[in-house]
């Protein structure tokens, strides 16, 4: 809240207020005596130039010695004495994910808070964890470990990390410190926060209380809810999703729960006087404090934490004036919520002055209070984090055009992404050595396993950034959990870190005499843009400049702009012409702006050949005339689709043959008998030959497309304007596909058996699925080879429909199609069976409370969200329709966000009643099964019709089955009651997981989670259509509030768009589930003056994408419509 919001600053007598900062400095602030608390808070935030100020606040001790937070809307003198007012600046809201902290300075302050908590004993942990935390503090303050200078542990004696600091602990700290060589202070801060957040009592402040039986307890509030401890052991958690109301009455603190109930109450332990939960139900839980002030103080902290972490926005209501009869406290949280803060920071970030670390023993080039910008490079780290964490989600943002200013109000977000220089790797490389996983980081011996980021010397390269691709869905009925993205990140980044060596010695800084023609220049530029960059992304937004150039750093702080390479169009020009582009001068770290911007008078994209994807406005007309265009033949774009999808298929195979195999090798090296040798041999003996053959095929396709595009004299000969011969020569691989498909079900069964019998294998398997590179469930990647043959068939069919019978490529395409068709027809039923089996296995993992879901004769039919009538009214439930039963569930509050089964109904004898007198809710219908009746309502009439049609058809088929074929599942004892909470189901589900992060196995882009959030459904037929419509390639995505376009590598699979910077990236940087979206062409009001543009919209979330040609546009429209529920009416030919 600003001073303006709180009213004008009152005039009158001033008083000096001492504030103890996190770096132990004491600063004095002169404020009016009659001012409200917000005035002092704003003064502190302004002096610190703190953008993410809402994470922090001022705390003080009242006259009773109770530690309280400053009330922003209450006069200062009503909170502290006027004699010697003292406050302490501290972290108020401990974020569970340090990756959400955008500014390095904010992370530095959080690190100081952790250091303070460690020294005061407020973050109790094991000795190993404490030593690791202290080692990061030392790394940030002293830098790298120097053997010649730090002979023994005595160099740590000047640090006071803990209350009882011993020599043994200092030796452990020194040992960990030796492993942090190369980490910058910013990296050390991030690693410190990432390690601290895994400690159970991170950010926990205990408040003594008693339960209704007088048993001593301690209460705490955190981001997830209200916690109950006994003797430092957490015995209960009241999550915000279960809490209906928080209140206090004198000394009594009340937690009112939702009607579904929550496990509360305590009973005597068998061998001690302590108490444990008993499991009976109670709608209101009571705790008692010693005094009313303590009770109210804790209540206020709960209100603030709930508002900050749980709410999207907090309404600003005026405080109640004093009444004759009090109606209770009028206290409300007055700051921004976390969601508002994240959105505010991303819209208002600018580069800030460097700060000096107060206790650092080395020179830090980051930021200082009021200091000028430094000429040294900015210190950054790899801030990749798992965005699937519960509670971490992304909001729609509106990037604004701002300039660098020191004011907080006009700040702007600049985020980082890491680029690994790999100059030896070619675009078509297929060997395992070039595609091996990144080297594993050394793991510290800590309570929860932690990986430290690699140490590299980097400089910043700024790029234009877009609004988030994956928008947050806000549904009034869905408040418990939000959708989060598969990658770790909030936006599609355009700001990269590049190695210093590359920025100091750019390849195209000056004309090179060894380039003899234009094509060589373009080819080198293509290699620089498309091959050398292998990024690991976080997020970012648009930079300030709008010059449409690509810059390469050069000496003396100048930038030499160069035209960029586009995958859809090469800008080929002589070096001398390149040098004519205007240079841009910078005063800080060299940054190159890479993005696309439309001209003031945009020209429409002609039909093939297309317009350049990236435009260099300052290039002379003669250079523009030298631009080479792609062939206009439609067959070229069909062949190019083959190339684009082959690249994606290769990356999908690498998830298994490179990344998963590497996990196996590392486990084998540890000499732990975890991995079944039979399974590994069975899997890789069939996958490795496929992968090697595919790499060779991909190289041939890339070479043919290069010839087709005229990159050599071969284009003068018409025989290279074809692709059928390449595909026909590749048909020898069909036998490998046959062998794999025949063994696929055996492989899948072996995996399931290993997971059931080998707990350690199950843990490693789930941990691997949690990695960013495994962006889909692992079983889905196992199905990719079986699905790839269908894609070959579709590609060849399109080519034949385009060619005349006398075309020189027709016969080869026809012969190749016949061979592929023979295999696809032969294994069509088996592949459908495998797809059904894979879906059942996935559901078995995500459904809690039902056994033996995978049955040979069971078929999946539909999954989706319906509103089910119960005693509490209509409540959201997830329904799963199988060939023999209907199962309904609700999503649990566990970290894995699984679905708990409430009941099942057999299809034999089931009756569906569409209309009835009791049905007063729109789109409702009744389901009668056995002795039960379910009253349900769909979101739309269309959804209702789909469910009724599938139910009726499934019921008729179930009647034809004999009784001996029906095998019903046994529900676990707690699965049939909707009143039970899922907390008693967590032990079996999470016992195999060793850390909090490893428990997050759900994927927010899977169909069941998307259906849950978007209140829709998906059938097995929809899955079959989506399999036929997988696509990948480069698209331009329009920036939200400007005419710029951002080039992205886009992969469509499993009803979801996955976004990359290039096809070489190992994992997606963002994702966009398409269920519920509509796909249309832009309207006049959208003001899009470009051809080949399609529009995706869900409620108020709108995205524009631009294809390179008419054929590519048609294909993307076709695939998008296959995954969306609302489709365009006009035919594609008229678009």
TrEMBL record:
Gene3D superfamilies: 1.20.80.10, Dbl homology (DH) domain, Phosphatidylinositol 3-kinase Catalytic Subunit, Chain A, domain 1, Pleckstrin-homology domain (PH domain)/Phosphotyrosine-binding domain (PTB). Residues 424-434, 574-594 have a biased composition (Low complexity). Keywords: Cell membrane, Cell projection, Coiled coil, Cytoplasm, Developmental protein, Guanine-nucleotide releasing factor, Membrane, Repeat, Synapse, Synaptosome. It comes from Owenia fusiformis (Polychaete worm). Its main location: membrane. One of its GO terms (molecular function) is cytoskeletal protein binding. InterPro entries: Band_41_domain (IPR019749), DBL_dom_sf (IPR035899), DH_dom (IPR000219), Ez/rad/moesin-like (IPR000798), FA (IPR014847), FARP1/FARP2/FRMD7_FERM_C (IPR041788), FERM/acyl-CoA-bd_prot_sf (IPR014352), FERM_2 (IPR035963). The keyword Membrane applies. Residues 737-771 form a coiled coil. PANTHER family: FERM DOMAIN CONTAINING PROTEIN, MOESIN_EZRIN_RADIXIN HOMOLOG 1. It holds the Pfam family FA. It is a peripheral membrane protein. Residues 360-462, 526-625, 975-994 are annotated as: Disordered. Residues 413-423, 526-535 have a biased composition (Basic and acidic residues). This is FERM, ARHGEF and pleckstrin domain-containing protein 1. CDD domains: FERM_B-lobe, FERM_C_FARP1-like, FERM_F1_FARP1_like, PH1_FARP1-like, PH2_FARP1-like, RhoGEF. GO terms for cellular component: cytosol; dendritic spine; filopodium; plasma membrane. Residues 369-392, 449-459 have a biased composition (Polar residues). It is found in: Cell membrane; Cell projection, Dendrite; Cell projection, Dendritic spine; Cell projection, Filopodium. It comes from the Eukaryota.
């Amino acid at each position: 809240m600003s001073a303006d919001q709180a009213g004008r600053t009152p005039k009158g007598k001033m008083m000096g207020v001492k504030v103890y900062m996190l770096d132990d400095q004491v600063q004095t602030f002169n404020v009016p005596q009659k001012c409200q608390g917000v005035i002092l808070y704003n003064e502190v935030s302004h002096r610190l130039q703190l953008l993410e100020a809402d994470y922090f606040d001022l705390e003080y001790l009242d006259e009773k010695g109770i530690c309280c937070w400053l009330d922003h809307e209450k006069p200062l003198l009503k909170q502290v004495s006027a004699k010697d007012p003292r406050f302490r600046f501290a972290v108020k809201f401990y974020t569970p994910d340090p990756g959400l902290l955008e500014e390095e300075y904010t992370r530095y302050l959080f690190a100081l808070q952790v250091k303070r908590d460690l020294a005061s004993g407020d973050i109790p942990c094991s000795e190993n964890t404490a030593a690791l935390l202290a080692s990061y503090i030392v790394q940030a303050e002293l830098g790298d470990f120097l053997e010649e200078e730090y002979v023994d542990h005595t160099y740590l004696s000047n640090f006071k990390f803990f209350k009882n600091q011993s020599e043994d602990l200092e030796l452990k700290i020194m040992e960990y410190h030796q492993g942090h060589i190369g980490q910058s202070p910013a990296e050390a801060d991030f690693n410190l926060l990432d390690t601290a957040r895994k400690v159970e009592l991170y950010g926990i402040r205990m408040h003594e209380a008693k339960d209704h039986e007088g048993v001593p307890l301690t209460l705490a509030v955190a981001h997830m809810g209200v916690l109950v401890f006994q003797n430092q052991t957490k015995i209960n958690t009241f999550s915000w999703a279960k809490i209906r109301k928080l209140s206090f009455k004198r000394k009594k603190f009340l937690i009112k729960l939702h009607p579904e109930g929550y496990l509360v109450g305590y009973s005597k332990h068998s061998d001690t006087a302590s108490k444990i939960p008993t499991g009976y139900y109670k709608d209101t839980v009571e705790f008692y404090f010693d005094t009313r002030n303590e009770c109210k103080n804790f209540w206020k902290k709960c209100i603030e934490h709930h508002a900050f972490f749980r709410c999207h926005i907090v309404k600003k209501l005026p405080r109640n004036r004093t009444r004759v009869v009090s109606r209770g406290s009028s206290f409300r949280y007055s700051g921004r919520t976390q969601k508002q803060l994240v959105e505010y920071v991303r819209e208002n970030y600018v580069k800030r002055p460097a700060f000096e670390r107060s206790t650092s023993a080395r020179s830090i080039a980051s930021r200082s209070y009021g200091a000028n910008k430094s000429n040294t490079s900015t210190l950054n780290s790899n801030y990749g984090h798992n965005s699937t964490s519960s509670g971490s989600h992304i909001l729609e943002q509106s990037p604004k055009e701002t300039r660098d200013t020191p004011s907080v109000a006009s700040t702007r977000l600049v985020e980082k992404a890491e680029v690994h220089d790999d100059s030896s790797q070619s675009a078509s490389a297929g060997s395992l050595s070039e595609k091996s996983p990144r080297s594993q980081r050394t793991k510290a011996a800590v309570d929860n396993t932690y990986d430290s980021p690699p140490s590299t010397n980097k400089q910043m390269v700024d790029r234009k950034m877009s609004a988030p691709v994956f928008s947050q869905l806000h549904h009034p009925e869905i408040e418990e959990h939000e959708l989060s993205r598969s990658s770790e990140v909030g936006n599609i980044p355009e700001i990269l870190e590049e190695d210093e060596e590359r920025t100091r010695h750019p390849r195209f800084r000056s004309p090179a005499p060894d380039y003899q023609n234009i094509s060589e220049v373009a080819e080198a530029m293509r290699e620089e843009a498309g091959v050398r960059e292998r990024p690991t992304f976080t997020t970012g937004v648009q930079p300030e400049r709008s010059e449409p150039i690509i810059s390469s750093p050069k000496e003396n702080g100048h930038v030499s702009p160069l035209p960029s390479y586009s995958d859809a169009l090469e800008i080929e020009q002589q070096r001398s012409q390149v040098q004519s582009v205007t240079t841009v001068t910078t005063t800080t770290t060299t940054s190159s702006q890479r993005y696309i911007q439309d001209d003031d008078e945009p020209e429409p994209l002609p039909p093939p050949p297309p317009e350049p994807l990236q435009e260099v406005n300052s290039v002379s007309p003669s250079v523009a005339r030298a631009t080479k265009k792609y062939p206009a033949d439609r067959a070229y774009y069909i062949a190019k689709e083959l190339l684009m999808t082959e690249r994606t298929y290769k990356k999908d195979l690498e998830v298994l043959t490179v990344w998963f195999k590497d996990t196996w090798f590392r486990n084998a090296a540890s000499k732990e008998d975890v991995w079944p040798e039979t399974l590994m041999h069975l899997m890789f003996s069939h996958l490795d030959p496929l992968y090697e053959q595919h790499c060779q095929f991909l190289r041939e396709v890339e070479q043919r497309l290069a010839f087709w595009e005229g990159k050599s004299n071969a284009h003068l000969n018409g025989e290279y304007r074809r692709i059928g011969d390449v595909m026909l020569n590749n048909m020898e691989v069909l036998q490998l596909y046959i062998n794999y498909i025949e063994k696929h079900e055996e492989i899948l069964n072996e995996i399931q058996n290993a997971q059931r019998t080998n707990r350690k294998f199950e843990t490693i398997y789930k941990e691997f699925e949690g990695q960013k590179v495994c962006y889909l469930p692992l079983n889905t990647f196992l199905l990719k080879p079986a699905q790839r043959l269908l894609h070959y068939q579709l590609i060849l069919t399109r080519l034949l429909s385009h060619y005349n019978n006398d075309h020189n490529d027709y016969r080869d395409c026809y012969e190749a199609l016949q061979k592929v068709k023979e295999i696809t027809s032969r294994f069509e039923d088996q592949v459908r069976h495998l797809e059904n089996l894979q879906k059942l296995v996935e559901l078995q993992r995500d459904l809690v409370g039902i056994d033996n879901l995978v049955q040979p004769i069971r078929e999946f039919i539909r999954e989706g969200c319906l509103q089910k009538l119960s005693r509490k009214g209509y409540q959201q439930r997830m329904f799963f329709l199988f060939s023999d039963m209907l199962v309904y569930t609700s999503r649990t509050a566990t970290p894995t966000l699984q679905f708990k089964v409430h009941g099942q109904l057999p299809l034999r004898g089931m009756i569906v009643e569409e209309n009835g007198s009791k049905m007063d809710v729109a789109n409702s219908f009744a389901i009668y099964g056995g002795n039960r009746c379910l009253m349900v309502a769909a979101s739309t009439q269309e959804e209702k019709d789909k469910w009724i049609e599938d139910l009726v058809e499934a019921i008729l088929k179930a009647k034809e089955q004999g009784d001996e074929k029906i095998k019903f599942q046994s529900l676990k004892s707690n699965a049939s009651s909707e009143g039970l909470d899922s907390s008693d189901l967590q032990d079996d589900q999470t016992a195999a997981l060793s850390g909090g992060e490893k428990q997050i196995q759900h994927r927010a882009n899977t169909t069941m989670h998307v259906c849950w959030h978007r209140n829709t459904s998906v059938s097995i037929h929809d899955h079959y259509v989506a399999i036929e419509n997988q696509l990948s390639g480069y698209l331009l995505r329009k920036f939200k509030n400007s005419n710029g376009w951002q080039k992205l590598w886009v992969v469509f699979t499993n009803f979801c768009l996955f976004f990359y910077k290039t096809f070489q990236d190992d994992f997606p940087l963002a994702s966009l589930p398409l269920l519920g979206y509509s796909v249309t062409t832009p309207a006049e009001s959208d003001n899009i003056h470009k051809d080949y543009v399609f529009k995706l919209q869900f409620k108020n979330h709108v995205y524009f994408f631009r294809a390179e040609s008419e054929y590519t546009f048609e294909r993307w429209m076709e695939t998008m419509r296959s995954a969306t529920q609302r489709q365009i009416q006009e035919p594609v030919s008229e678009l």
